[in-house]
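Researcher: Please predict.
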Amino acid sequence: MKNEEFTRYSRQIFMDEIGVEGQNKILSAKVLVIGAGGLGSPVIQYLAAAGVGKIGVADFDEVEIHNLNRQIIHTENSVGTSKVDSAQNFVQNINSNVEFIGFKSKITSENANSILKEFDVIVDASDNFATRYLLNDTCVQLNKTLVYGSILGFEGQVAVFNYQGSKNLRDIFPDCPETALNCDKNGVLGALPGIVGSFMAMNTLKIICKLPVKTNQLLIIDTLNWNFTQVDF
């Protein structure tokens, strides 16, 4: 590890659970984030700041003005541009040592396998159930760990799927819902994805560093009443 890297990441390295060995694991890690929106923003921000060596981001949308209340890596100057390009600009500004790989396309059954297979950990920051189930099934097929999060209104959910033989999304929700509430129609308070996305980033970094994470458990975060419920499955 270079001296400048030690200095940059020293506050992580000083932790007994991380150390130089853990930081080297972070620097060598390859993480794919699906979605550069409300959840993807804090995930991308904290992974880049922590020094994850290679960060892939897949998103086919452009930045819109209504995104800015919660998608904190984007700015007013990003409106009308690709979210992937905006995310890349953010990552380069916060940590130029991170290798950024952008995918300006929707994850489909045709491309999921080829995109996901190059990464160590997959982070599901998507906003629709079809993509969530596709990511889950592809991770099971490829034996990839999936860090999951979802948000709506004041409530969020977090889980780690398919890690060291643990269960996956279909073990708790077997079938993809045909219809569901979403933030576009039902809204979300902007700080919520910051909370849930930070949980997701923390799980991702712990997985990279081989630290214990909860599996076979769904964490439900109710920020209106400030309740945290753990559902085992």
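Model: The longest strand covers residues 145-152.
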